[in-house]
Specification:
The protein is an alpha+beta fold. It has a domain of about 200 residues: BirA Bifunctional Protein, domain 2, CATH 3.30.930.10. The chain is about 35% helix and about 20% strand. Strands 1-6-8-13-12-11-10-9 form an eight-stranded mixed β-sheet, sandwiched between helices. Strands 2-5-4 form a three-stranded antiparallel β-sheet, with no helix packed on it. α1 crosses α3, α5 crosses α6 and α7 packs antiparallel against α8. The protein is globular. The two termini are about 30 Å apart. The protein binds asparagine.
């Protein structure tokens, strides 16, 4: 269904009506989502790009990073942001307890990921983090953001949907919740592609063994984390979790994963002092969500300046 024949890559021609319709839809979807969170009392935080501390993105069943972008500035080594997870944890612990960030991430995905139709080497996450929140709270927030934006687009942007030839269904809430292990057992290794095609509405998948900062229940070994899988083959669009906040567990998990503790010293120091608050949050891939809304064949179709793995454009 989705190849690499993309529309809108020719930067020397005026943009197509299709692409302009996509940008109109994106504008309004972002406005709806931002307004909803502002009404709920969230603080709008601006992103950080270069940092000594970023998401290791590992271990993770989805890992496909070719290289980490590191540069030296003022005699110090910093990385391009892979996700603001560390910053989110610090902020909700020391400052406002409900935050959101439209956060650009740089992830140099392997070139073969160009063909999935779902990977970009630069993209933006709609990040949310809430102190003392649980999984269900975060499910509720994103379910509202998703359904309200879809309702808005159907009601006010029907002309754009027509240009795109897109029929958009309003998903039923609450979205169904499944354990990753049960999906894996039933559908095998490619369960994500399978469920993304079979289910008609988005589904939450919980219990994913991955990065140290997601909460692991010491009694059951269950991971209190989640992904949201979109239907029609669009796949994962959100990932998040309840978070670890205890020093011992964090230190042990960093060691288990073979990560350099000095990159996460701030988290460890706060945890040691009892200042790292429990929280939960997630990030929604904005381009993937818009690709689903507009029915794009490749996620890069929603970017004015496509960032497809392996292809470095003129601008
Ligand atoms: N944004 C994700 C979260 O909040 C982390 C990630 O992007 N890897 O858990």
């Amino acid at each position: 269904m989705r190849g690499l024949m993309l529309e809108g890559l020719d930067l020397r021609k005026p943009m197509s009506g299709r692409k302009i319709a996509i940008l109109r839809i994106q504008t309004e979807v972002l406005r709806v989502m931002v307004e909803r969170l502002l009404e709920k009392g969230f603080y709008w935080i601006l992103p950080v790009i270069l940092s000594k501390s970023t998401d290791p993105l590992w271990p993770d069943p989805e890992f496909s990073i070719e290289k980490k972008v590191e540069v030296e500035i003022y005699g110090e080594k910093v990385s391009a942001m892979q996700s603001m997870i560390v910053h989110k944890r610090v902020l909700v612990s020391l400052g406002p307890e409900k935050i959101f960030i439209l956060s650009p991430n740089i992830r140099i995905e392997r070139r073969d990921r160009a063909a999935t139709g779902r990977h970009l080497y630069e993209f933006t996450q709609f990040e949310v983090e809430v102190a003392y929140a649980k999984m269900q709270d975060i499910f509720g927030i994103y379910e509202e953001l998703i359904t309200e934006s879809i309702k808005y687009v159907r009601k006010h942007l029907s002309r754009e949907l027509e240009v795109l030839g897109r029929e958009l269904k309003i998903p039923q809430t609450p979205f169904k919740v499944y354990k990753r292990s049960e999906l894996e057992e039933k559908y095998g290794a490619s369960w994500q592609d399978e469920v993304s095609r079979i289910f008609e509405d988005p589904i939450w998948v919980t219990g994913i063994p991955r990065e140290f900062y997601d909460y692991e229940d010491p009694e059951t070994g269950e991971w209190r984390n989640y992904d949201l899988i979109l239907p029609e083959g669009y796949g994962e669009v959100i990932s998040g979790a309840e978070r670890e906040y205890e020093y011992e567990k964090l230190a042990k998990k960093l060691e288990r994963d073979g990560l350099d503790k000095s990159n996460y010293k701030i988290l460890l120091d706060l945890a040691k002092e009892g200042l790292l608050k429990p929280s939960a949050g997630a990030g929604l891939g904005i381009e993937r969500f818009i690709a689903y809304i507009v029915g794009a064949r490749h996620v890069a179709e929603v970017q004015p300046f496509p960032r497809i793995p392996g292809i470095v454009p003129e601008i």
